């Protein structure tokens, strides 16, 4: 199946796009992503869609440095639960090795490798989206994010020996040199960062030895439990695709990189069907949305993927035994 990434990969995407004068919502809808869903950072979305979105955004904004500008806005917390652990690691080496070893916990497209030779450490970064798509912006975002992590450990004045990209140089390299320093190289045979191996032994100024054990225990329990099933992935994609009006088993299968029969077969093995997951997800969202009086029923109908409010009302009545308006009134009565 095609790899997924956490919503946090697009952290600050909307703000950056607006600052560059492009419409982030329109671009997200073109690749099948829901702008509202970005608020939930731990939700998983299609890696291909994110990669295509970054390329479209760079073209629309006429900024070849779009991915790098987005990396500049990344925060340590965007890594998710793993950030709590690496923050308490004793030195840069153990933190970086942990980040590389558990990369699938925050980005399934990402493949990174740390090596040492002749006094230099090399962090190589590659992306495998599962199909042939341009990855220039996504690669620069990934390399830029790793650079930000290293600086958080080694200080704002730290500089790598070199930063390498396999793609050609942009027309204006100003942003690259401002972010990485003067040693930025293009048309190289790998993407990544080269720095002195001695930097790996630098103590982590953020580390608290008393918290380290607790952070490790928390992370290990989370890492074991985060064995995402096919049903989990389908639920996530249903929730993401519903507001776009394109939530079908064909679309879900396409996002997962398989055909619809494979999705049917794997869901059946788990005792589920696509229809049962669609209904359950809609019901869960409907309870939350209808209870909010600030949302109109017409708006809710669209967010749940119905073609018309009447279709939503019929489905709701069959599922909950009353109309959406009656259900909202009953929920509001106790509060009143």
Automatic annotation (TrEMBL):
Molecular function terms, GO-annotated: DNA-binding transcription factor activity; transcription cis-regulatory region binding
Organism, as annotated: Streptomyces antnestii
Alphabetized SMART domains for the sequence: HTH_ARAC
Record-given protein name: AraC family transcriptional regulator
Transmembrane feature ranges: none
Transmembrane helix is among the record's keywords: no
A cellular component annotation (GO) from this entry: cytosol
Keywords noted in UniProt: DNA-binding, Transcription, Transcription regulation
Pfam families: Arabinose_bd, HTH_18
Coiled-coil segments: none
Family matches, as Gene3D superfamilies: Homeodomain-like
Domain HTH araC/xylS-type: from-to ranges: 232-330
InterPro entries according to UniProt: AraC-type_N, Homeodomain-like_sf, HTH_AraC
Membrane is among the record's keywords: no
Domain of life, source organism: Bacteria
């Amino acid at each position: 199946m095609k790899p997924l990434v956490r919503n946090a990969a697009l952290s600050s995407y909307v703000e950056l796009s607006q600052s560059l004068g492009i419409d982030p919502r329109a671009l997200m809808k073109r690749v099948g992503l829901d702008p509202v869903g970005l608020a939930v950072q731990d939700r998983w979305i299609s890696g291909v869609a994110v990669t295509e979105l970054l390329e479209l955004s760079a073209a629309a904004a006429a900024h070849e440095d779009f991915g790098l500008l987005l990396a500049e806005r990344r925060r340590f917390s965007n890594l998710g639960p793993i950030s709590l652990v690496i923050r308490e690691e004793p030195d840069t080496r153990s933190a970086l090795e942990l980040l590389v070893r558990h990369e699938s916990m925050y980005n399934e497209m990402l493949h990174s490798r740390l090596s040492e030779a002749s006094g230099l450490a090399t962090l190589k970064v590659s992306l495998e989206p599962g199909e042939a798509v341009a990855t220039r912006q996504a690669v620069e975002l990934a390399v830029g994010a790793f650079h930000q992590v290293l600086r958080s450990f080694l200080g704002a004045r730290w500089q790598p020996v070199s930063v390498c990209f396999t793609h050609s140089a942009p027309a204006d390299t100003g942003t690259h040199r401002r972010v990485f320093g003067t040693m930025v190289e293009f048309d190289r045979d790998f993407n990544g960062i080269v720095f002195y191996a001695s930097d790996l032994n630098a103590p982590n100024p953020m580390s608290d030895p008393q918290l380290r054990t607790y952070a490790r225990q928390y992370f290990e329990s989370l890492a074991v439990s985060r064995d995402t099933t096919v049903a989990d992935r389908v639920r996530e994609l249903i929730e993401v695709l519903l507001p776009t009006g394109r939530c079908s088993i064909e679309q879900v299968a396409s996002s997962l990189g398989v055909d619809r029969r494979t999705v049917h077969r794997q869901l059946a093995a788990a005792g589920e069907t696509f229809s049962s997951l669609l209904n359950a997800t809609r019901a869960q969202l409907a309870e939350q949305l209808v209870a909010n009086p600030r949302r109109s029923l017409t708006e809710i109908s669209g967010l749940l993927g119905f073609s018309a409010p009447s279709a939503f009302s019929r489905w709701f009545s069959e599922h909950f035994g009353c109309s959406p308006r009656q259900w909202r009134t009953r929920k509001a009565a106790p509060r009143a």
